[in-house]
Amino acid sequence: MAQKGVQLDGENICCSICLDFLKDPVTTTCGHSYCRNCIQTHFDEEDRKGIHSCPQCRKTFTPRPVLEKNTMLAALVEQRTNRNLSYIYELT
C-alpha cells in the first residue's frame, strides 16, 4: 500500500519535494513522507513564521514536529538501490 506523500511509480519511491529517491525517509504526523533533509529545509524556511506546514496537505504544526525515521520506506529504498546496483553491475 502506498503512503501519502510518496510517489510509488512502478518501483520508484520518490520524495514529493526533491522528486528523487527518498534519502533517510521520515514521516510527518499527518502521514506524509519525505527525505529528512528536504523536510528539515522546508521547516527551517518556515521557522520565521513560527508555524510549520506539510508541503503536501498544508496541515499546520505548532510547535515544529519531531520527525521519525520511516524504517519501512528506508528498507524499500535500500532494496531498490541494491537492485539498481546489481543491474548496473550486470551491464558492465
UniProtKB/TrEMBL annotation:
* Protein origin, superkingdom: Eukaryota
Tagged with keyword Metal-binding: yes
Q: Where is the RING-type domain?
A: 15-58
Entry keyword Zinc: yes
Give the lineage.
Eukaryota, Metazoa, Chordata, Craniata, Vertebrata
What's a Gene Ontology MF term here? zinc ion binding
- Keywords attached to this entry: Metal-binding, Zinc, Zinc-finger
One of its Pfam families is: zf-C3HC4_4
Q: Which residues form a coiled coil?
A: none
Q: What is this protein called?
A: RING-type domain-containing protein
